[in-house]
Amino acid sequence: MASSRILPEFELLLPQNIKEAVSALGKLKSKASVMAGGTDVVISCTKGFGSPNVISLAEIPGLDYVVYDSKKGLRIGAMATLQQVADNADVKKRYPALQRACAINGTPQTRNMGTVVGNIMRASPSGDCICAVLAIGGKIVLQGPKGKREVNIDDFYLKYRETACKADELAIEIKLPAISAKNAFARMTRTTLDLSKVNVACSLVMSGKTVKEARVAVGAVAPTTIRLKKVEAILKGSQITDEVLQKVVATVPTEIKPIDDVRSTAEYRRDVAGVMVKRIILEALGK
Amino acid sequence: MKYMLSFTVNGAPADVAVGPTETLLDVLRDRLGFTGAKRGCETGDCGACTVLVDGRSVRSCITLALTVQGKAVTTVEGLARDGKPHPLQQAFHDHGASQCGFCTPGMIVSLAELLEKNPEPCRDDARAAIAGNLCRCTGYVKIIDAAMAAARSPHKKGGPA
Ligand SMILES: Cc1cc2nc3c(=O)[nH]c(=O)nc-3n(C[C@H](O)[C@H](O)[C@H](O)COP(=O)(O)OP(=O)(O)OC[C@H]3O[C@@H](n4cnc5c(N)ncnc54)[C@H](O)[C@@H]3O)c2cc1C
Ligand code: FES
Ligand code: FES
Q1: What pTM does this model have?
Q2: What is the ipTM of this complex?
Q3: Nearest residue to B58 (alpha-carbon basis) of B42, B47, B71
């Protein structure tokens, strides 16, 4: 019996290694989507608004690694799932912000399917892993016909859903630095299944009670996930007193440009983002 | 253009010629007659289509069939052992955890994965395991009761292939 579904047309390519994938993408360019876990790509395709070609990474062996090295930091391969990263002992210990962003991402099934790299590449302003990685810092390793290059996450998101990844490049892995920074992530949703109406993450390098370096990221309040540079400047060199935290809460709304949409209102997002940043700073410091 | 998909469903080999656009749910239901997995939202949101691929629960409605080449798929039909229902199936029956039953196969498959990973779950573990399975009838309490009863069952290791 034929399928009961009306199927939109697209072609599926299953390259057996990275070279084949890069060469297929080099020919098709913007006429193809790269697919990792497919939790986003397949929905677009079966609903008829996807690319005419899908290049799946499913049959390329050895891309599902999560490895930590005390000098080089963490490397996450393009096919490592959200669940794998959430379960990884080194991620739990050193990158709790990323662990949390993976552990709360969608449902048990979409965590078994979806990848961290897919989350980064999807470039949604509400992407939970994006927020965590932007706070921790990291690099996206891209491969195209001319070879490999690395792009700092700070330079990766250009505008709404647009990244520095070119049409003939695919992401091989992401790299996070070996850090001693205290980091944490939190998000606000209506139900566990929802996408974030606001998400926040921070990473703080401490020297005793004083903040030496600070990175603070917030998502779903601007066309891309952004770092809060003014808040970071307030934190740097300060001790986390009530006064400093009040200043942070008051500054957050001046750095974001939220909109009204199905998940929330601009007004609510503006109010809640500051409080969330404050809480996440306290959480990172174990307070 | 069709391609040959060779995989196993509930332990038995299956070879099907499928198109690139067909999902695993299409192939299971419409080609192979495994109608246990249900077609709900088709956007990955409701969990009715949940099946196991190599022991891990996935959404078959957003899995392209050709990406499970060579893998082992288990549907709710494959959980019984030696003609006896899986302890979760028995417990759903005993505890009134199904009403219309549309969500039941997905619930049972999600919980089967939980029991494989964690044979002694608490109620919160069971709640987390079905966080992606929507039920419009039961209010979930009896489903959790059934999950806990199945976890206590001495036969729970009858689990998925
Ligand atoms: C029910 C449901 C719940 C969800 N909940 C959340 C949530 O809570 N938080 C959240 O952030 N997201 C959520 N998502 C969105 C999505 O599942 C995640 O972002 C997931 O991590 C995407 O990973 P994937 O491997 O499935 O991506 P895919 O669907 O395979 O790809 C996503 C995008 O990235 C591109 N891409 C993927 N891999 C590469 C690569 N290696 N190189 C180049 N481009 C690539 C694809 O072309 C596509 O544009 C949810 C989705 C569903 C269906
Ligand atoms: S039918 Fe697959 S999740 Fe709803
Ligand atoms: S029993 Fe009807 S949807 Fe769950």
Answers
A1: 0.95
A2: 0.94
A3: B47
